Amino acid sequence: MEHREYLFEIATTVLFDPNLAEQMGKSLALGTSAFEGQWQVWYAKYSGNEAQLKQLLISPIDPGAKLQDFEYLSKEKGVDSGCIVTGYKKLIKENPDNLNVRFAYSSHLERNKKYSDARRVLRDWLKRKVVTLGLDDVVTRARIARLYYKEGLYRKGWAVIKPAISSNQGDVLDIAAMLLEKMGSRKDAEKMARFLSGNYPDSLFSSMALVKIYWLHGRYDDAAKVLKRFRINVIGWRFEIGKAFRRNIRRQTGPGAQGLLFLGCPWFRPGEPEQHCASSRRQ
């Protein structure tokens, strides 16, 4: 089995060969125990077998595999949301200290704009005072603060994130900078965003708070200069820059649009910001 898992990894991350990935994934789904479930879930997702996915939800499979199943189905249209919520609650009851389950459930609630419920799921984990070796506590605080940010409850978000700032963790500093900006502390926000960008100089994500703050205050050239430091592939354009600026750029035809032209991205034209980045895909 190990050699098939290795070939699957190579097919998906190096060769980008969907045919080989499908062959190995199907072989693993058929050749592993039903309880493990990971590969059964993967192949059902890959082949679009929604009926099999729903069956796996009530099967005695590994909690990690079942979580993958819930995460996938919760994003699909036409799937009974009540069934998903009931399933997540059952998983949490069976694995109350598992933060990944709580992250997945809170993300589902967030997608449905149930921000208060999403925060409650995460706060309940914090109250359990689970002992971990990593930064789970501060990352959870960052998620709670981001939920407050989405609701426009900036001061409540700041109260949650402030005790975690000394960790210098990227997610914490990012949301802290944006909360400060929204509360009117522009200089402190920019200072924190600069620190974050300098602390993780090779991370595009860690520079996005600074870019967003520059952009919000009309400093388009400064925003573009920060982005110019990075070799940005299509994934970066779509999931970091596009996610942050899609709505803003769609309406932008003035200096902000010209600021993006400074980046030298050949797919961008003022008034056509969402044209597909075919050139980046070829690089």
List key phrases describing it.
283 residues, mainly alpha, Serine Threonine Protein Phosphatase 5, Tetratricopeptide repeat, 17 helices, 69% helix, disordered C terminus
List the helices and strands and how they pair.
Elements: H1 2-13, H2 18-31, H3 38-46, H4 50-57, H5 63-73, H6 81-94, H7 99-111, H8 115-127, H9 136-151, H10 154-161, H11 170-182, H12 186-199, H13 205-216, H14 220-228, H15 234-250, H16 255-261, H17 278-282
Helix pairs in contact: 1-2, 2-3, 3-4, 3-5, 4-5, 5-6, 5-7, 6-7, 7-8, 8-9, 9-10, 9-11, 10-11, 11-12, 11-13, 12-13, 13-14, 14-16
Structure description:
This protein is mainly α and 283 residues long. Among the domains are: 132-217, Tetratricopeptide repeat domain (Serine Threonine Protein Phosphatase 5, Tetratricopeptide repeat), CATH 1.25.40.10; 224-283, no CATH class. 69% of the residues lie in helices and 0% in strands. It is built from 17 helices and no strands. The two termini are 34 Å apart. The relative contact order is 0.05. Mean pLDDT is 77; it is low at 258-283.
